[in-house]
Write a structure and sequence with these properties.
Shape: globular
Oligomer: single chain
Largest sheet: 5 strands, mixed, barrel
InterPro entries: NA-bd_OB-fold, Primosome_PriB/ssb, ssDNA-bd
GO molecular function: single-stranded DNA binding
GO cellular component, one term: nucleoid
Number of helices: 1
Strand content: 35-45%
Subunit structure: Homotetramer.
Order of helices and strands: EEEEHEE
Organism: Alicyclobacillus acidoterrestris (strain ATCC 49025 / DSM 3922 / CIP 106132 / NCIMB 13137 / GD3B)
Helix content: under 10%
CATH class: Mainly Beta
Length: about 150
């Protein structure tokens, strides 16, 4: 059996970092991912997918990613359910990230705004905390237009 999800999209808001009762960091954010096909009016539909990131990777995501940033997520789909305050069962679909890759620099100046946005691979498989410099960024010359907060539909 296989449960693997790979997504590339933009964050709809800054990641939210929390800690469990045992002190384990967990971050969550929503990724806006455009569909490949357009509708009958020529507009692209967008899916808003909830992402959950754990441990050191959660702290890195919280520190280096922000609303509008382009990111790639590799993980697994998880469906969980809970009872809300009205006693109704609610099902939630979310992607539990195994790795998050930062795909852009953050702003037109390359400094990512108010946060320190050094691009890096936060894969769990990379235990030596290797950090990429901008010179190592394979997407540095990709000719993608910068998107400001005003361009985002949310």
């Amino acid at each position: 059996m296989l449960n693997r999800v790979i997504l590339i999209g933009r964050l709809t808001a800054d990641p939210e970092l929390r800690y469990t009762n045992t002190g384990t960091p967990v971050a969550s954010f929503t990724l806006a991912v455009d569909r490949m096909r357009t509708d009958s009016h020529g507009n692209r539909q967008t899916d808003f997918i909830n992402i959950v990131v754990w441990r050191k990777q959660a702290e890195n995501v919280s520190q280096y990613l922000q609303k509008g940033r382009l990111a790639a997520v590799d993980g697994r789909l998880q469906i969980r359910s809970y009872d809300n305050r009205e006693g109704q069962k609610v099902r939630v679909a979310e992607v539990i990230a195994d790795s998050v890759r930062f795909l852009d620099r953050g702003d037109n100046n390359g400094n990512g705004g108010t946060r320190n946005n050094t691009p890096q691979n936060t894969s769990n498989a990379n235990s030596n905390d290797h950090r990429l410099s901008y010179e190592d960024d394979p997407f540095a010359d990709d000719d993608m237009p910068e998107i400001s907060d005003d361009d985002l539909p949310f």
